[in-house]
Amino acid sequence: MSELVVPAVVASNDYDIIISGGGLVGASLAIALADLPLRIALVEAVLPDDAENSSFDERSIALSRSSKSILNALDLWPDIDTTAWPINEIHVSEKGRFGSAVINADEQGIDHLGHVIKSRILGGSLWDRLSECSAIDVFCPARVGSVAVTSTGVAVDVEQEVPVSISSTLLVVADGARSAAREQLGVVAQHKSYGQSAIIGNVSIDLRHAGNVAYERFTSAGPLALLPGADGVYTFVLTRNTDDVDATLALSDDDMRDLLQELFGYRVGVFRNLGRRFAYPLYLSTAESLTAERTIIIGNAAHGLHPVAGQGFNLGLRDAAALAELIANAIASAAAGVSPADQLNAELEGIQSAYCEWRQADQRNVVSFTDGLIELFGKPGGAVSIARGLSLLGFDLLPAAKRGLARYAMGQGGRLSRLARGIRTSGSES
User: Fold this and answer.
1) pTM summary value
2) End-to-end alpha-carbon separation of the chain, Å?
């Protein structure tokens, strides 16, 4: 990773846009806006090489096809292409029950459904690019302190080694599901605990040819996802009830392998070497509003999801791409003699309204789908289990349903941003 120059004091404290949160979504938004004639400040609490920074850990991310298009349009894909592993098939099943659902890239007439990449690699590439963007001032490690909204702008106290106060026309909140900035602005978020945690680690297998299939296996112990990677190494995501997490983490490598094998079976062969394992709690978080005065809320600050469908980052990246496009369109529509900053201020309410109209349906559908999966597959046994098997079998026999879910899994349902179509956001749609 390139050395990042972090300003303690800047030449001017006035910005056009302040982004609170420099994780994967916040950093992506900053880069998407970098070509516009605007001054941008990015405030991030945790340094990239800090073990507490989840955007730079060993967690694997399932990138949808549209996410790849967005990253490619931002010229980021060449940096990560060699480490990204393609997903050609998605296989969904329930242990001990008939019925399964398979989505195959060839059936959809495409070369892949998505890719798997390490969060650390993607985060490093994003911050390498930030270090090259002269229009972006990065404050890190720093936290957004008090936020004051006036009729003319947003004033933010940046808490860092040398505190500084900055202001902007627009504040974008992208600092996660427990967003302090969102709370300060009075936007309430509903939190639903699943009473579960995800245990994540790597495991090698002995069937190398199986390596382009992503699996979602529902079991009585909780969902088990396997994401493919290079050299026969899969990332597993095992969901466990909170009361069982410590005991599961304490299992020896042999016992953990046995557990995974018993839950998943032998469709990818025998599980071999295990890597380090860690866990994090699972809950659903949804903000009651996507906007506040002079503020737009994106990513996990708007919607924190269960990882069962692998949609969290993809949904947040679509948020960032849509917002970047709306801002670019507003700037491009300025009359002669009107500065970009003045145009952003004049069009701000319209940008907020358009953002809500664009993103609400996608966010609502993804939240409902993800939460519905947990409700349907998280209840063991009986008639519910039979219904699950029938639904999986029925889905696999209905091409139209399969095509619809494939588009959903690829992030291509609904309105696509220019970035998701591979077009750099630098001006209005022609």
Assistant:
1) 0.90
2) 37
Instruction: Give the separation between CA 25 and CA 123, rounded to whole angstroms.
Output: 10
Look up tokens 């026999």; give the residue: 397
Region class of 53: left (phi > 0), else alpha (psi between -120 and 50), else beta: beta
Q: Which CATH number belongs to the domain containing residue 156 in this structure?
A: 3.50.50.60
Q: How far apart are CA 430 and CA 427, in angstroms?
A: 9
The dihedrals phi and psi of 195, each to the nearest 5 degrees, come to 65, 30
Within 140-224, residue ranges assigned H as helices are 180-184
Q: How far apart are CA 314 and CA 332, in angstroms?
A: 27
Query: What average pLDDT does range 141-167 have in this prediction?
Result: 94
Q: For the chain, give the mean pLDDT.
A: 85
d(CA 168, CA 292): 14
Please state the rounded mean pLDDT for residues 190-196.
89
Range of the domain at 358: 17-191+283-420
d(CA 185, CA 261): 48
Number of domains in the chain: 1
Contact by Cβ (8 Å): 30, 40: yes
